[in-house]
């Protein structure tokens, strides 16, 4: 990204200048047309909405919506990402996983974290890893497994098919789901011993939806108020034992400086009655 582009992004997304410009007639609509129709960009945000339904209704006609389509799923046939925050997640997996453990990876793509983890260390003996994905992404993962590119991982397209787990893991996926946090809280009824979450857009004060154009498609995107998100989990009998910054990711929405999330978050929780690790 050029210095000029960086300055423009900061001005529009993180300062009062953006808020003022957003009041100009037609400015937000013109930006939305540019941001949501392009297919040669990724990670571009537009708009602020009160609900998933309101956000998805704003996706332009002719654009694919969400991750359950072949164009979006093809993203996972590319090279593995090299993001610094992955190492914090891998640290906690290495500390918490035990022989025979079952890992449920919600929205794990083509087993991205499992592949990065096993490139450096072996899973504990008899440990299993199940990725829960959209049907389109699960098909890509299964096809890579069939060719031998993936090992020791199972792909399913419903939580029920995954069954109970000892470790609930998710990295950068819950924000795309209409009920991502509720899905997590519901899964806690089965009492996994530990929860490791990475690449979460958590805001100090705001809770809202926006739209993200990630290239092949456009998707509603949830930002949670940090304290509320954490409380929903600790109220289920879990203790927050670590949190880290994900400096490589941010949520910048032009004309909405108060909604800026300058860096994402990672969180690790341990069930209160299983707090030793």
Automatic annotation (TrEMBL):
Species per Swiss-Prot/TrEMBL record: Camelimonas fluminis
GO MF annotations, alphabetized: methyltransferase activity
Protein name stated in the entry: Methyltransferase, TIGR04325 family
Membrane-crossing segments per the record: none
Species classification: Bacteria, Pseudomonadati, Pseudomonadota, Alphaproteobacteria, Hyphomicrobiales
Keywords: Methyltransferase, Transferase
Entries under InterPro entries matching the protein: Put_MTase_LIC12133, SAM-dependent_MTases_sf
GO BP annotations, alphabetical order: methylation
Signal peptide: none
Top enzyme category: transferase
UniProt-listed Enzyme Commission number(s): 2.1.1.-
